[in-house]
Write the structure tokens for this entry.
Amino acid sequence: MDKQNSTYFTTEALAKMVHAQGKTLAQIVIILWQNAFDPNNSLEIIDSLQLRFTDGERITIGCNENGDGLDVVEPNFQETKKHLDTEFGGKIKLHVLDASKTKMWETIPGKVLKSMRVTREEENYKADSLVLDFGDEGRTIAISPNDGLLIDYFEQV
């Protein structure tokens, strides 16, 4: 792949991911955008995923500023919500939801985050996806320009 077309994690984002490793997960929160322009066909997109640990630390995985890769982000829910209300007249809503008891995440709280694995390309780390490794199970997070974050079960090979 041509490096000009690749997006990589910053050193700062990688350091935050390393810092989160070894911590026990307390809660998983998703930030969801709901597009209600068409009342008969509401569209929901996961904007970011926040891992909350038992020691009070948090790490939020979302889209980078260019929209072409993942990043460790610092969400400001109230500011974003206000901006969306102003720009779209209430047709796009921002929801902060506890996902800890959903089928995707119900077995994860209380587990230790062993690692956040990313793909290395020479001296850089690609920001197209990552794996949250909880030892006996994991989750993948990828990004789609039109669909937001894509979260799935990680199958050990």
In short: Helices lie at 11-20, 77-88. Residues 86 and 150 are 27 Å apart (CA to CA).
